[in-house]
Each structure stands twice: as C-alpha cells, then as structure tokens.
Amino acid sequence: MRDDLGHEVVLPDDPVCRVVSLVPSLTEAVAETAPEVLVGATDWCTRPADLDVTRVRGTKNPDRSAIAALRPDLVIANKEENRELDVRRLRADGIPVWVTDIETVPQALASMRRLLVEVAGWDEPRWLVEAERLWAGPVPEARARVVVPIWRDPWMVVGRPTFTADLLARLGLGVDTAGEEGRYPHVDVERLDGAGVDLVLLPDEPYVFTEGDGPEAFSRTATRLVNGRLITWYGPSLVEAWTALADL
C-alpha cells in the first residue's frame, strides 16, 4: 500500500502486531484503538497518561537502534512532526515506515481511518466514528477572528494551511496573522493587539504559555489559555475538542 505521500510500504499479510509511533497524536490513536500492539513511542508521547512502552527519544531525533530492537511491523510518522532524513534512514534499515500528511480535519479523519482500519487491519474504533460524526458538515462563516501564538521571542502564530487553522475554522473562528503569509509566520504583536482581533488563544504547547507568560503582551485583546492538545492533536482528542472548544 502507499502512504499519504505516495511511498509504497510493504506490510505483513496478517494484521499489524508491533507498532512504534513517532507522533504523539498517532500514539494516542493507536493506544486507544489497539493498545496491545504499541511497543514504542517518543518522549513527547504523553497520552494516554498511563502509557507504558519503550521510549525512542524525540520526534526530531529518534533512536534508530532502539526502534530496530523493537522489531516493529510498522513505524508511523508524520510529514510535519518528523524529519524526512530519519524516515529515509529507517527505511534503509529495512523498517517499514508509514508517513501521514494532515492539514485539515477531514484529511486527519480519512488518514487515520485508512491507517488504523485498512493498513493495520484493526477493528473500526468507536472514537473515530464519533469524531467523524461530530466534525461532519461544511465550514461555517467566521463569527470571530482569533490569534493563536505558538512561540514568543520571536512571536510566531498559526497561519495557513494548518490543521489548527482548519479545526478552528470549523468552529467558526478565523485565524489572523496581520497579513503575514505562511503556516507559522513571525508577527509583530502590536499589529495584532486590538486590531479587530476578538480573542487570543494561548496554548500550552509547543511554547508553554501561562497566566503570567503571554496574556500581558495583549493589553487590548481578550486572551484565553487553551489546552494545546485540543487544537493541534488529531485522534481521540478530536472528540473532546468539539465539546471543549464550543464556547470560544
């Protein structure tokens, strides 16, 4: 079969039984779908909270020797989260790697259904069915403009095309970048603060914004701290996000 980037991946005839995940979102998705097959994950894979598998370092510097020692049927990665160099090296070692490419909610749902059900051969997870039901339908007209910083010094915000921007758009929230283009552009905070922006969402990842670190930069705009997992992760978090973010 071919992954989201069109690369041919040779899989075992039987359902996939040993998986190493290099993506926190996909680690959670696998753990909620077929927990017994997950044998390795990165240090950044924090969900579920009781996850007890071998750690293979980070998303950008995976330990290839540790991964090989786990004898995975499949390693799962993501175009944005992981480095192409690491994927190439794992494949050169004879390890099958499936790479996902996700920039929208529908794309995330379709990609996960293909990976979990068609590729891995597991039963259809209930959380996926529920997420598909909740997020079905057209994108509504934006009812508010939001800024979503992901870093400071320098300030960077969510732009387009990104999964986060699409998820928020489906909640009626349009991301604002003060006219700067790109997926995660650098911005001048003063140009955004109070310039027709309704709300600044401050997530706790990748930069950990807190009550004392972030809101003070936006004196003319309302701010709200938000769980970064709900706006950047795909998988079971999509079910929680629909309810948790409905009042934004």
UniProtKB/TrEMBL annotation:
Spans through the membrane: none
InterPro entries in UniProt: ABC_Transporter_SBP (IPR050902), Vit_B12_bind_prot (IPR054828)
Superkingdom, taxonomy of origin: Bacteria
Membership in a protein family: Belongs to the bacterial solute-binding protein 8 family.
Name of the protein described by the UniProt record: ABC transporter substrate-binding protein
Organism: Knoellia sinensis KCTC 19936
